[in-house]
Amino acid sequence: MEILGTTLRIYVDDLDRAVAFYERLTGTPALRSERGGVSAAAVGCFLIMSGPAAEIDVLRRVTATIAVKDVADAAATLTEGGAQVLVGPVSTPGGRNLIALHPDGAVFEYVDRTVEAPRP
After folding, report:
1. Which residue of 13, 18, 43, 94 has the smallest Cβ count within 10 Å?
2. Residue 110, exposed/middle/buried by CB under 10 A (0-12, 13-18, 19+)?
3. What whole-number distance in Å separates Cα of residue 70 and Cα of residue 89?
């Protein structure tokens, strides 16, 4: 499994205020998205999220997001090492991802940027 980088997750009540701070901090404009009632903004190595408490509480269980070259390869490496894949791999508009529980109890999201063509 080739790890390409990590994204730090930040949960906030005021997304606009947080985005302004992190855009100044990194000198990078935010890329915004929304899914399942959660608004998110990627700013440099930070992923800032805001939304309903029930949704955010689930997301808080994930320690960080790890970019990998290939999610399928990551899934194989993780399970061989004793981790449990909880969700995925699944395709998303930005690529594929999975969520894994490591043997030590840590939960991480793994993502790649491989976008699969829609199936008929």
Report:
1. 13
2. buried
3. 10
Tell me the C-alpha to C-alpha distance, in Å, between residue 85 and each of 11, 22, 94: 24, 31, 20
Q: What is the pLDDT of residues 19-48, one digit of tens each?
A: 999 999 999 999 898 888 899 999 999 999
User: Which residues have a Cβ under 8 Å from the Cβ of 117 and sit 6 or more positions away?
Assistant: none
Report the C-alpha gap between 76 and 70 in whole angstroms.
10
- Give per-residue pLDDT as tens, 50-93: 999 989 988 899 989 999 999 999 999 999 999 999 998 988 76
